[in-house]
Write the structure tokens for this entry.
Amino acid sequence: MDATEEKPSKAVDIYRDTWVRFLGYANEVGEAFRALVPVSLVWGSYAVATAYVTADAVDKGKKAAVAHGDNPGKTTRVAVAVVDTFVWQALASVIIPGFTINRVCAASLYLLGRTTKWPLPVRKWTTTAIGLSTIPFIITPIDRSVDFLLDSSLRKVYNEGEKHE
């Protein structure tokens, strides 16, 4: 193979392959900082994550529309792409991780209050650090669990074998 030959490159998905992906984690960061910031900022982080989820679902719908052209069943294929992406992202990027980080932080703050004599600001900052450090460890298990959940339920309804990539 000639070293000057280029391999065909996969199209970059702005919502999965760039920094934009991190917007989906905004609510986890918000939950980690809940003890330190006004609750309105936490809700704002959910707004950012929800906007990301919605934009990704719309993007996948547009891509499905282009891919299926004027073929019969185009509307159904587009709807499946949008619903599958939105449900997957809502569960895997917003609902489950937000709840998980919220509970980790709440438990951490409670346990630090019961087991240490640290001042409240130190306990709150420690709780935030614990919440932030938990994020990388929960992503893959949650993604796999949501894949399993959708494969076992919603994806059987439209029986396409299509799934979130």
Summary: The CA atoms of residues 58 and 82 lie 6 Å apart.
